[in-house]
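Suppose you are handed a protein chain with no further information: no name, no annotation, nothing but its sequence. What can you learn? This example shows the usual starting point.
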Amino acid sequence: MNNLKWSFTNIWNESLEQREQRELKPRNRIWASELGGAYIDRFLKMKGEPQTNPPNARSLRKFEAGNMMEWIIEMVLKRAGILQESQKWIQYQYDGLLPVTGKLDFYAGGLPDWNEAIKKIEALDLPEFFKRATHQIIEHLKSYNKELEKIIIEVKSCSSFMYDRYEKYGLESSKNHVMQTFHYLKADNMPEAHLTYICKDDLRMLEFGIFNPSRYEDWYKEDIEKMTVYYNSDIQPPLEQEVIYNEDTCKFSTNWKVTYSQYLTRLYGYKEPMEYEEKYQKKIAPWNRVMGRCIRQDKMTELNLMVIKDIKRLFPNFDSLILEAKKRGIKEEEHEMG
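A reasonable first move is to predict its three-dimensional structure. Written in structure tokens, the prediction is:
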């Protein structure tokens, strides 16, 4: 293409898409990374059912991009002298429930030789902004003037859209990540972990503290209890709703648990995620506009009333959703005007 003498881009792209997929085999344990996900998908995976929609090339590239971000964090922690251990498999099991197994990202802490850490940074051929960031991290950690307590650091990469969502709505928007991180605390009987998001678009970083004990154990244990009942009873869980209502934003949206289902065709009849998303894009936009009008108590048109009737087919509790949104004082700019 373009009369190039030679190119490495094809090799690059192909290498990212050639990640070996683990063969699905029946298992009687929950992966920590599955916590908070669709029960139906998890059930089928645990039973060893073949996937109709395994990760595509784009998904594999996104996965590897996440690995690269994780590697960057590991390198900074290591050169700063506070990385204690990484990629440790860890398991926990409540009495009578299925065990949960997962691989945490990093243990960090200790009292390193800060001068030696700076020398190691200087010895690396790092881009200037990495050197600058790492120097500033070291200077900040030195200011504590004491040994840093050992904590768990769990790293997630995300898009700008999701970063802004996490920043605005906090941990309620990432219960699956919270439960995964809490698992490592519970399994290792540790008091504190940091759930860290790094934006792939602009390298912003966001950090949340996860603690043990905390209310997050209720989320964690309830998830395991439900999955245990489905698995031990050999009862297939119900399908996910294709349209969901988000209490944070007071908006309707497609369901990420459907979009990313690796049984999308088998369970919902869609050949690919785009087919599912396109089906509801035109429907959900007017739903949210009318939702906003109802919250603001605007005058309803005949078309608005028809849309409300359509919403109530899937959400018969629509009136109570409006009342709850009003109580919360949802801001006008959070809804499209319509």
